[in-house]
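Case study 2.
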Amino acid sequence: MKTRVKVFVTGLVQGVGFRPFVYRLAEELGLKGYVLNSELGVVIEAEGEKEELHTFLIRLQSEKPPIAKIFSLEYKFLEPVGYKDFEIRKSEKGGEVKVCVLPDLATCKECLKELFDKKDRRYRYPFINCTNCGPRFTIIEELPYDRPNTSMKEFKMCEKCLSEYEDPTDRRFHAQPNACPKCGPYVFFVDESKKVVCKDEEAIRKVIEYLEAGKIVALKGLGGFHLICDATREETVRELRRKKRREEKPFAVMFKDLNTIKEYAEVSPLEERALTSVESPIVILNKKPGTDLAESVSPENNTVGVFLPYTPLHHVVLNDFKRPIVATSANVTDEPIVKDNDEALSIVGEIADGALLHNRRIVRRCDDSVVRVIAGRQVPIRRSRGFVPVPVVLPFSLKRPVLALGAHMKNTVAVAKGNKVYLSQHVGDVDNPKAEEFLREVVGDMLKLFEVEPEVVVCDRHPLYYSTRYGREKFGDRLVQVYHHHAHVISCMAENEVPLEGRVIGVAFDGTGYGRDGTIWGGEFLIAGYTDFERRYHLKTFRLPGGDRAVKEPYRVAVSLLLSSGIDPRKVLPVDGKKLSLLEQMVKKGVNSPLTSSMGRLFDGVSAILGIREKVTYQAQAAILLEQRALHFSTEEAYHFDVTGGEVDWRPVVEQIVKDRSTLSVEEIARKFHNTVASMVVRVVDRLREETGLDTVALSGGVFQNKLLTEILYEDLRSKGFKVLLHQIVPPNDGGISLGQAVYGGLV
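Prediction:
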């Protein structure tokens, strides 16, 4: 089946033979479409079979002209439009590149070669860079992007570096972070007593010594500090969990090179492209069995988040240590990543046994990005370092400049003007004073950096979100509110280039969102445009005994589901009798038990009924582990359910699951449940197509991070003739909400 890919490339890609290269490659692969220069770089649209398009994406990066430099490459799959041939089109707006702020770029091949060349004057220098790589977003203070406006202004270039910087023929011509061991930043090591004990090469050796001894080191990166340790030492990883207060949420692992990753995990061609891209994100891969990776890296999980070194400092450490390292953000769980040396010193002796610091200031915090390949697409789970601040380009222009304050969980902020929306780096969950301060910091930073004076400021409808309260206090009359799940669907529409007057069937599945009727939504079927929506169907509501406690204790959700299905929880759940009696009263009387239609909570409850997880230690853990179990069984069977009026009744599903517990494996039941949820969606959107004539379905919300469910559903909907829109530029979770908010605010 033919499809279309749209690619946005920024970098040194104009006037270097890039468009003819794209043309020749497309012709070779039998693709149709066009390539043109735009004000952002190069835009490509190509139509063909999916396999050829995947090959096209990989070869764009690996076979580009030698002089061409790619600073970012974002792509999305869209419905085909029927191009007849491939052509080089005339440039848009003269083709002048106007990208003012670039993302941080992973170390390029040329710098990496010099880094390990004993004859080079920058041999093993941890801050080697050129115009093709190195820090940008995390060192710039204000526009224009010149050295005096970055944190590199504190380092005066030596004669040799200045000569490179001023030579138009040199690779380091106008490389703002240009430096060498003689004139640039340096690293130094701080031990348990918080005293500087060594610097430069001795400091690197001290890091290796600590790692080999099973210790934890705080290492200063591009957008903040990592906590690193030997990923093959179980006792060390457990100690890191204890100190960081991160009980079970998977850690990311950094590997020396791609071949080493392949020893530990399965890597598809698209996953390899993601790993080796200039963005260098964490990529979620399937583990290989029997490796020496510590079990506590990603407990009870078939997957592991892996990435490659993306700074010269990382490369030197991984080259010397020879083993994979855990590289997780240096912070206490749920607080912003540590970025300043003083902050890092405060965790030495508490979380880290020592710290490798340097004397180049980090201007703004920026966590690592995370992606997962789902349904043949690269889906962001967290869009941050490497991708930010490349804009999302809209298929239309907004009426006014906008600031969007994002959601409460996985927060990002956005500013928009014209047809471009600039999303911030990952802010995270805004549920503590440090996170609130970080949100305010990012808002001020984005407005200043992109020189936006918003006519409208957009926030969520939830009255208790900090972002909502902050919006009211700070922006007053300019504040506009949009419903959570409408913003989800708008974000999916916008990045998939639905026309301004377009309407879609929006399926918004997540854990929590404030609904129009004051209840907690999360299992929604909407008919939506960019500025309005209608809720047509939803998951049948149920009680959440204890409110937020039910999110952390899924057995509470299970009690509610069982009671609503006419089943005695005592026959199913191994929970104390007195506790069950109390929960029963809460559910029956509605005491501290808000109503919800949340699909995320339904996943949690089923996980608890199956004995997978009664309590969780991180968001969506019960649902994630339910997916993991489902992957171990293959069946197309599904459970019966009812659609009555505007409600999808899940109660028959719970009844059948409880019955199957005595005869079927947990894996088979989990797979049947995933098939059932996909069937629910197909049946409802089929009805909505009959009722409205719409055949485009937008899937958004955190539930669609579930690879198994999304891939089943994608194929089932496509087989029935639906056009299916998935997230590919911004996350399906609440990290993408700010895009939808910004578009809404710019149009209403």
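The longest strand covers residues 2-12.
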